[in-house]
Task: inverse folding
């Protein structure tokens, strides 16, 4: 498996090709890929997703992918690292929470974002702005970051569970999305609150989740939260007190206790 490594915090590229030359690969960075024009298939983690004009894909570091191009495709790439995401003073920004939620949501990597006419126009113009800054990326890093956060807001409101109608409220993907989106609010992740949101009974939602995932809601929430906390600690920019406040935890000792409890739990999650 080829792994592409990026050392710059953010890079922008734009190109048009009729044949994809890269092998199946993953990265050490994140990628926002905009299909300005073209048609084909995007193979992500062995899943084939058809793409057309205006599609957007968001990939995390461990996602394996390549393209099968049917008609000449115009790609715009925005590639950024953890260092770029975890900028000082930015962690509590709501836009970054949208971005983190999107990156960590499983279904984000199994489909392309499809937009209504209004959002398609907005997305196109945002990428026009991004492209205009590609020759002076270092000088424009803050401005590019603003575009990333704006995109995160638009992508978030186009997630499947946001667009779904009532008969899809029991969709397992919607349950994942609810957890990822509300990981900062422990009260919203209580079984009773989740059951009411999804129109389940308290007992049934637990059984439903475990049947589909092999783990309890409590374990999934715990491990997911700890993974996010570890990312913050690894960045070296955030104190335990800040992290405790962001995740609605009691204090620094609560954070330390969670890390200790989950040190070896569900490795490879």
Result:
């Amino acid at each position: 498996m080829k792994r592409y490594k990026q050392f710059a915090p953010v890079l922008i590229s734009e190109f048009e090709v009729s044949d994809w030359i890269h092998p199946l690969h993953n990265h050490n960075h994140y990628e926002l890929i905009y299909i300005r024009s073209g048609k084909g298939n995007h193979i992500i983690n062995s899943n084939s997703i058809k793409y057309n004009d205006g599609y957007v894909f968001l990939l995390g570091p461990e996602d394996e992918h390549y393209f099968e191009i049917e008609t000449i495709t115009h790609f715009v790439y925005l590639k950024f690292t953890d260092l770029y995401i975890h900028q000082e003073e930015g962690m509590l920004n709501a836009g970054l929470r949208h971005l983190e939620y999107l990156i960590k949501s499983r279904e984000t990597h199994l489909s392309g974002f499809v937009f209504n006419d209004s959002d398609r126009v907005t997305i196109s113009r945002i990428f026009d702005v991004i492209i205009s800054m590609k020759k002076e990326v270092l000088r424009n890093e803050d401005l590019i970051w603003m575009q990333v956060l704006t995109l995160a807001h638009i992508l978030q409101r186009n997630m499947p569970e946001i667009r779904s109608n009532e008969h899809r409220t029991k969709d397992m993907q919607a349950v994942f999305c609810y957890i990822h989106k509300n990981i900062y609010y422990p009260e919203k992740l209580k079984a009773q609150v989740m059951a009411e949101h999804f129109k389940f009974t308290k007992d049934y939602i637990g059984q439903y989740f475990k049947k589909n995932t092999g783990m309890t809601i409590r374990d999934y929430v715990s491990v997911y939260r700890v993974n996010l906390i570890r990312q913050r600690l690894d960045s070296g920019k955030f104190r335990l007190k800040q992290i405790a406040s962001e995740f609605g935890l009691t204090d620094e000792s609560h954070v330390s206790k969670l890390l200790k409890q989950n040190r070896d739990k569900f490795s490879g999650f």
Q: What stands out?
A: Strands lie at 2-4, 10-17, 25-27, 30-44, 47-51, 56-59, 65-80. The longest strand covers residues 65-80. Confidence is low (pLDDT under 50) at residues 164-170. Residues 40 and 69 are 5 Å apart (CA to CA).
